[in-house]
Amino acid sequence: MNQAVCTMAEKLNIIIVGASYLGSKVARALAKSMPQDLAVNHRILLIERNSHFSHLFTFPRFVVVPNHEHKAFIPMSKLFNEAQCNAQIITASVETVNESEIVLDRDTPFGRRLPWHILVMATGSRLSPPANMPTSTKVDSVQYLKNLQERIRTAKSIALVGGGAVGVQISTDIKSYYSDKEVHLIHSRDRLMSRFDASLGDIVLQTCKELGIHVHLGTRAKLPDTDGPCTIELQSGEIISVDLYLKCTGQVINSEPIRELAKESINSDGTIHVLRTLQVEKHPRIFAVGDVNDL
Ligand SMILES: Cc1cc2nc3c(=O)[nH]c(=O)nc-3n(C[C@H](O)[C@H](O)[C@H](O)COP(=O)(O)OP(=O)(O)OC[C@H]3O[C@@H](n4cnc5c(N)ncnc54)[C@H](O)[C@@H]3O)c2cc1C
């Protein structure tokens, strides 16, 4: 192997923030395809605040079904193979980005402030736990899921607020796995999974009814301060008492690190406006991919 390729000092940084579905794919594709003449003076730094790749799609099920939770957190150590040694993963959170540097939340072997040449924002979005983990390490996240599984197992009644994909999946999994529990699904819109096609909402509602889930549509809930036992007051006046309450609403777009630098490209919902090339207007060396952009 060409030793020059593996010397990481004094190279221009191609920084990818976020190592989830999009960021890890971009980083691997770049590392694989970078020509030797570019690799001698560029390095790829993939920055991720979580210790492991989080396979989000499995979270709703592993909230309910025990003994699989460890499978949701996948080591990233094999993301780049030896031949792609101009790529590294840094475990840290990016706090801010200015014209020339990114600032991390901690000291790393690469320092706390890193100059950037190309920046790829792959920071996605976040939801309240359990749709996202409240912690950043595998050990703590596995423990969090185990605790929640136990609380669900012992609760006689459970309310979920938010009838999007996450609320629907968790409530139907609870009722499929524990048919004797009283499950309430509360949604402010007139249709479940209202961001999708209307016919899907009808199918999902029918399935919820067949499972015996109490679906409350078109009503807002006054959110309790505790996750239970608690009472939940609905706009309709109805009051529901449950042993456990799960919040499945409130998606936030993770564009904070560049909100100051590229303020003219941040939409009101927090997404980053990009051109068809995925570049941020007026900042041609910044790209945004995945859920964080507005495509
Ligand atoms: C519970 C759940 C289930 C889902 N199920 C499905 C499904 O079945 N099918 C489907 O198609 N879609 C599903 N989705 C949606 C899908 O997960 C998203 O579309 C997808 O995750 C978007 O990928 P992304 O890489 O753009 O961002 P994300 O997956 O949101 O990843 C962003 C990454 O950036 C990191 N990050 C953020 N900010 C920083 C920072 N400042 N510094 C360092 N790192 C940072 C985060 O830790 C995270 O790893 C689901 C979503 C959830 C929450």
TrEMBL record:
Gene Ontology molecular functions: electron-transferring-flavoprotein dehydrogenase activity; flavin adenine dinucleotide binding
Name of this chain's protein: FAD/NAD(P)-binding domain-containing protein
One Pfam family cited in the UniProt record for this chain: Pyr_redox_2
Species in which this protein is naturally found: Adineta ricciae (Rotifer)
InterPro entries, alphabetized: FAD/NAD-bd_sf, FAD/NAD-binding_dom
Domain FAD/NAD(P)-binding per the UniProt entry, residue ranges: 13-293
One annotated Gene Ontology cellular component of this protein: cytoplasm
